[in-house]
Amino acid sequence: MMSLSIFLSNVFTEGGTVMMSLILICLLLSALFLVKGFLTTKTNIAQSVKMRKMAAESSLLGLVIGFFASILGLISAFDTIEAMGNPNPELFAAGLKISLLTATFGLFSFIVIRVGILVLRGIQSYDKTKE
Q1: Closest by CA position to 19, among listed 70, 56, 54
Q2: Is residue 105 part of a domain?
Q3: Over the chain, what HEC string results?
Q4: Quick one: pLDDT at residue 89?
Q5: d(Cα 99, Cα 112) in Å, to the nearest integer?
Q6: CA distance 74 to 43
Q7: How many domains, the chain?
Q8: pLDDT at 126 over 90
């Protein structure tokens, strides 16, 4: 059985390391902004709100990069199919799978960060009502 790290490494590579790396950078930046937002909630609510907004923007950027890369992958797959004439269905399915990996990773990172943003927004609104 393949270990999880090898599986994730293969998926990352199959999706295209450049675009997958950009999405990962957006995910890490969003997580950093969220952590800073959580840490500054009690001391500086304005800074915390700013960090929440930055997390939202960077997570949206990761989502858009994922869909952009997916569209580029589909265009590339259709170009290959056009050049071959009558392609093998397995080859076509493999091309579609690879093109959707970036969109899936972008969606995953967006959803994870959005859950964090919702929690942070709830904490921020609770702290505002206590004042």
Answers
A1: 70
A2: yes
A3: CCCHHHHHHHHHHHCCHHHHHHHHHHHHHHHHHHHHHHHCCCCCHHHHHHHHHHHHHHHHHHHHHHHHHHHHHHHHHHHHHHHHCCCCHHHHHHHHHHHHHHHHHHHHHHHHHHHHHHHHHHHHHHHHHHC
A4: 75
A5: 21
A6: 48
A7: 1
A8: no
Separation between Cα atoms, residue 12 and residue 18, nearest integer Å: 10
What mean pLDDT do residues 8-17 have? 77
Q: Which domain holds residue 57?
A: 27-130
8 within some domain: no
pLDDT 10s digits, 30-85? 999 999 999 999 899 999 999 999 999 999 999 999 999 999 888 887 887 778 77
Whole-angstrom CA distances from 30 to 27, 37, 79, 82, 95 are 5, 10, 35, 39, 30
